[in-house]
């Protein structure tokens, strides 16, 4: 039980303890709740009170006055103190108003409108009322740095005047100070003292030593820096100065509020009082670079930018005025750019960015990046980027050295004149600006070094320059008004002396330009006063139509091909060319100033009217062209004729040769000659090969050399009855002198073809056609070999004078010359004759031949005359003069002459020496001019007939023919009389045939033996147009007599005669002399008692012979019935001639 009682007692005690703890807790909570409620009520009342306005707590004035009385030994009077709720900091702040500072003498030296304090808790624990933070509201602060580097607040009051307005530029506020007042020095003095306290060590007896921060709100700052000769003002200033372990730290926010300079500056700094250096970092906006450069001369390199800028800067400044390394970053708005040292209009700027560093100790300005976007938003311009180093050498008088790298992007060359300074390459600039009309520089970079003596950027000198370009779509006028080069794209490098372009592509008309090089040199040596100019050199590759290339070359500005008779019209083909040009960059560029080189290959070249009116085609040519001349070579076709040509043309003022042209023609056939207009009028047929060269001189004079291979050709010279067959070797060489109108002379003519050899010279005929005059040193063909031959056109025909030599007349005497004159030479038709119309007269080509000293005149291979004098004159109506005289060679003389001389006791050789046989023939105008007279005679008829290859059947005798004609032959008949004596007829085929048919055996035997001797031949005949007609011709001798009537046609070599053959002619002739009975028995003259009527008709060589045997038994007076045709009144031995 006792145990149970004890067990029950323990829980009861536990419950009592919990009850007492609970009551204590309730009491504590109630007390805390009451305190909290009271606190809330107090706070609510306090907040309500502070919201109602400042709460005066003037009991703190003595403590604050005591705390600030340490400033410079001055005393502080506070009008009132109060607590203010600060919305900005959301805190309750102690304020003091109407503060007056007096010096020890009680004189008022400063006043402050209002100051906010934050009291130091650590000072209060030490029983001292001291501020830890001070905020000065609305002060005016003056800061002065003297020329020796000392910084003072307030200054001497002799040079500052606080402006009445806070509006205006920095310059306005900084320079409005004058000598008339010192108001505002009080705030600066107080601030200077406070700053000293912030820099001093904490001292328990000094309330201000507990100060940690001083702030200025809504202040105004005015600065004068005599060391930099700079004054500036910030009418809106927020400053925080804080005690720092190294000295002093602070934040500054300055607002340069005005109508023209709405600039701001936000900065933070730390002042190391031991090093006496301020480390400064700031951000700024809306500051004028021009104004900044004007204020700080060392920033002159950027003074040409008028853009307003913002950015940041970090630097350090010693109290001695030394500026430490400074870094900055700037971004700018629209403005203008003026480049120092370059005379040019300010450039519009869209925006800019700059980053850099400045080291005042090293006098070095590093521009890490400067990017300026030129132009405007409406018309954007290029973007210029610049980076570099600006070195300043104070010890050399302030010289600057600028090493910079520049980059230009998006440059439109149409605006080049705006961005190219006139003072840079002043001579080249006008040409480049004018002639590079459009295009784009996509990218340009440059490394430049500029020397600025004594900091005078107007006197800046370019020390070095190098860079590169990338461009496209350029249009370049290389020589106005020639077509420009377009679509040029490529790269370039440049330095102070030259710009070197490498173009990857371009176009000139339809010519495509390949990789090309363009250099502008002499940029550093040009001197206009000494006529030393920049030079432009172009090396280009081009490919395209020949037409476009010739269009450029024939342009009046060059006029290179019109002088050659060439034109772009009708041209064709494609070329690949290497082009080179060089000329000075002067505005008045002339052709003489241009130096150029062109090398080209041409495929399928075609030109119209190149030579002889013919077109060129299928040319595969190589061309070189420069200012001195042109050279073209290669195979081509001229008028369809294949040839290989080499042509050189000189452009020099006074060349030795203006033109040198060589052509190799492997084959020129009849069709080819016809196509190129070479008509040889039947002289030449078949292909020939030729080498032609021409040398041209000024004045239109030139010489053409021709060497032709005639082996494969047929040659025919009908005038001399000569021809060469194909396959026989032949060649022609000739030099032709020409002027602007055509050939003037043909020199050094050498023709060798078969047996034809000709050497001589010639001149062209009237109007340059044909050959008007020829002189041959020698002409040889067949048996002819003539020297000193002159042939000349005369009176519509030709005249020839032969000096000496040998002439083969056989081809000429076979037939008479064919008449000329077309239809005029043809007889009238039968219809015309039937109508009684007369036949048109024949017209002959005039001809004159004079050969006064022919060694031999051949009539066949072994028949000739010697020592011949020949004259032939033919007019349009026929032969007007025929004179021929010559000696008959001894070998043709009648052999019996020598025998007779020997029988008479005369030496035969003496007969030969003394008795020359001759021929004399003359048909010439008579003395009265009424017609022509004929005289022909020879002292050896047989020798003459043998020498001229008529017949060998006559031996001995002499002959004389006389006659007359009313006019030239053959248009006028010749009436002639022939007399021959003492000749012998031997082995005459026609006579033998006649005697055979007539059965006169004895006489025939005589003819076959020693011959039939005749005493004479007498008769008259008419020679009319190649036919000889006789009414009676008698040949008579002792053994035989003949009569003949009829004709001999020399043109047709035909004979048609009738007559009587009388044997024993001497007896019959005796009977005929018996009066009355003789004529009855014999039949008259030439008849006989015994005679046979005959007829001979047909070819001369083999005529048909007929006789009437009954006529031999008929008396002479009845013999005519055997020769008369029935129904005719008169016996006509020769029928009427029908003109053919």
Automatic annotation (TrEMBL):
The keyword Transmembrane applies. InterPro entries: AsmA-related, YhdP_central. One of its GO terms (biological process) is regulation of protein targeting to membrane. Pfam families: YhdP. The keyword Transmembrane helix applies. Keywords: Membrane, Transmembrane, Transmembrane helix. Residues 812-840 are annotated as: Disordered. This is YhdP central domain-containing protein. GO terms for cellular component: plasma membrane. It comes from the Bacteria. The chain crosses the membrane at residues 27-51.
